[in-house]
Amino acid sequence: MAPASQPGLALDAATLAAVSGICRRFQVRRLDMVGSATRADFDPARSGVDLLVDFEPEARIGLFAYVAFADAMEVLFGRHVDLLSGKSLRNPVLRRAVEADRRPLYPR
Description:
3 helices; alpha+beta; 35% helix; Beta Polymerase, domain 2
């Protein structure tokens, strides 16, 4: 489980191990949880999970693999997942907000 002092969605060791396996399969370099899932305003009944993903430079991630990765994370977390790419965070205000909430999931 996440430490009691850490707000948001708590993840146990088995879930984190599954995240690592999925990340290795899809050639993810880094995966971070961002948004309400990392904060006290997370609502377990309604909130989805926002993930910031960076793939390995040599990874060949097309649309189907991208969607398959998102689907695998949705099944694992049991809730809707939105994927963000580090490359897509061009807006400095959005980038600062994402950086403030960032919780590393992979690698740990």
